[in-house]
## 1
Amino acid sequence: MKYLINSPDISSLEKKYVLNALNSGWLSINGKNTKEFEKKISKFLRIKYCMAVQSGTAAIHLALKSLGCSVGHKVIVPNYTCVSNISAVAQCGATPIIVEVERQTLGINLEDLKKAIKKFKPKILQLVHVYGCPAKNTKEIVKLCKKHNIKMIEDFSESLGGEFDNKKLGNFGDIGICSIRSEKMIGVGEGGVIFTKNKKLFNKIRKLGSRNSPFRGSRDPYWKKYFSSGEGYNYLLPHLLGSLARAQIERFQKKLLPKKIMIGKLYKKYFNDENISITQNPIKSSKPVYWLNSIYFKKLNKTKVRKIASFLEKKGIEVRSGFWPLNNLSGFRSKYVGSKKVSMDIFDKSLVLPSNINLTEADIKKFRSLINKFL
Ligand SMILES: Cc1ncc(COP(=O)(O)O)c(C=O)c1O
């Protein structure tokens, strides 16, 4: 493919830090560059505690476990998101309660959520900001969670750097999680980060994520090093990937993020008329980061949209479908609450187009004129 959905942007800084990790002789967890990365991303987001882990999926699982999620518990997940959100719930033996999303930003629908809370009394809720667009009902969802004593995991894997009411995403839940796999806002191949402001909770996360053993920096005597309090996970990020992550976060604000925003604005310019719109419409008090640019065909059915997709792929333009609505995945034992089938409509009538930072205005204009042949 000539035009990719997203691709890693590797500069001499990434190469320098990887080389310095190789030369340091330390490739495993808690490497110097990984610690620097953790410090920098924490400072950027203004969330005091964080730990780099091996994937976004691992971060969700660890978040759920550290909040005590287990068999018999119910966890709310939005219908339009990555399968990892539901999969991690299943991994804990808990029951996923899938709630439909609203049409404007593809965040959780508030009315459906109220019904789900009343009916299922969930212990935990996962709030997801989709494709770089902060969820419209963030403030109300935080309030509802407080009122009903529900713990919140805020998943901003697709929206690093985004803001809601002048606060960076990641600050709204008891725990924040962010994937940093290759195609995300910053990417290291496979990786994730888990955040919290609560020291006690962080200590639990850190211990559980490192085999439930005494964590790094511990001043315990040497003979306690291999002690473990029980079930735990080997989830920490190795040093080579932590080195890539350090370079990516150092380049994020000045280089990577402004380019993403510029491309998002160009898509808005060329895909906004009676036939096609940008799928999401961020609310005024939020700042989106345009991780992926999804377009919505207002007048076409799914057969026609699929024809356009294969035509674009033949021209070397990578396209992606929307997320499979989770309530359509038969492999999970879940419950669903939804008054309007928004996720299915988006899945059928939208396409994700190349969103990588090397695109030019001419490229985006070209995508539009190729699509025009079908309208
Ligand atoms: C919203 C969201 N959460 C979690 C994940 C899972 O992260 P990872 O692929 O790093 O396991 C993804 C996708 O990668 C995602 O888009």
## 2
Amino acid sequence: MLEAVNLTKIYNELTVVDQVSFQVKEGETLGLLGTSGCGKTTTLKMLNRLIEPNSGRVLIEGEDISKRQPEKLRQRIGYVMQNSGLFPHYTVAENIAVVPRLLGWPKQRIRDRITELLHLVGLSPESFAHRYPQKLSGGQQQRISLARSLAADPPLILMDEPFGTLDQITRSQIQQEFLQLESLLRKTIVIVTHDVFEAVTLCDRICLLNQGKIQQLGTPKQLIFQPQNQFVRDFLALPTPCCQASRKYFSTDPK
Ligand SMILES: Nc1ncnc2c1ncn2[C@@H]1O[C@H](COP(=O)(O)OP(=O)(O)OP(=O)(O)O)[C@@H](O)[C@H]1O
Ligand SMILES: [Mg+2]
């Protein structure tokens, strides 16, 4: 469905994304995991041409995206920005309606879709549709951002730390809801996170990055039980509650 081939990005002679390659199958969730500054957001933004690579390419359904018009491309790819990224001068409804409007949907269809999506993310349309983002809590903003990314029902969704600003309790609650969202089950998703537990619970496969380079690409079990190098071992073995929880999440049986 999606393929990144040797993606490389250089800023001021510093290679921040270095020959990164991965494939994401249809319906699969891939996590881009790593510490702050390792190149996750830069990698994600090269998948929808918010950033152009210095070398390498991205194929979506076999087609090189550099040949597509960026605006048209992005209308078919949902994007949840780091820190929600809602337009502050638009209401919740207007934020959700951005892509459907660009696609020229009739007004009634847009209104129906807004109602449907607000229900989907657990917010009542009557109380939320006409509010402005700054009047919402961080968790509510994240939900709206998720609703906005789903608006035109894109087959591919890119998410940059979608739960990043939330406290641990709200975060776990939204993660659980996220796992159960019917309309996300069939989507192809690339999700950025620096949280090991989030990666192992939400992702089918994980691409662990360090200083722009892939350290290991595999299933959560493979990274936990068959780390390919010391960095991977250390990253997944950190004695934090998250990592302990992620080990408990699986049985200790490496199979
Ligand atoms: N426009 C830019 N110009 C110069 N350097 C940049 C630019 N954007 C990002 N960088 C650098 O590239 C590296 C990777 O940045 P990126 O935003 O991809 O990291 P990240 O993994 O998403 O980090 P975080 O978890 O903190 O969001 C960082 O060292 C950053 O300082
Ligand atoms: Mg980032």
